[in-house]
Design a protein that fits this description.
The protein is mostly helical. It is about 45% helix and about 5% strand. The termini are far apart.
Length: about 150
């Protein structure tokens, strides 16, 4: 046990010497290197530039990377089919409810309207002919000219 205590003391002394000795040598070198000459007179003041400050309007902008999400968005779905002739809005712009967004080619719808009008007139003519036939048959039935 005495040998381990003695070796611990020796190690502590060596550690102390390693840290104190370099500081002592550095202090001696600094003390010996100082010259005995009197300090020089203050050197002439260095020449410096002078600026006059002027108030100036400055705009500050900051560009930050990121993604934005709209507060409110709507999906655009067609209510009719057809060929789109014109897009009447700008991508990303605000649109109002009921605003026309696309112009569709009216040719197929115009043709369908003309066909429907022709069918209506044909049905009216058929109805007039049927009324006339019904009236004539009613008169003939009244005089027993036709079988029932």
């Amino acid at each position: 046990m005495k040998s381990s205590t003695a070796s611990a003391v020796v190690r502590a002394a060596r550690g102390l010497m390693r840290s104190v000795l370099p500081l002592a040598i550095a202090g001696l070198l600094v003390a010996c290197s100082r010259s005995k000459e009197p300090p020089q007179a203050a050197a002439a003041a260095p020449e410096v530039g002078v600026f006059v400050l002027q108030p100036v309007r400055q705009t500050f902008t900051t560009e930050l990377p990121g993604r934005v999400q709209p507060f409110l968005s709507a999906d655009i779905r067609p209510q009719v089919g057809g060929i789109v002739k014109a897009r009447l809005f700008t991508e990303g712009a605000t649109v109002r409810a009921g605003q026309v967004l696309y112009e569709i080619d009216p040719a197929p719808y115009t043709a369908a309207l003309a066909s429907a009008r022709a069918a209506l007139e044909r049905a009216r003519a058929t109805a007039v002919a049927a009324e006339s036939t019904a009236k004539r048959n009613a008169e003939l039935v009244a005089i027993d000219a036709v079988s029932r």
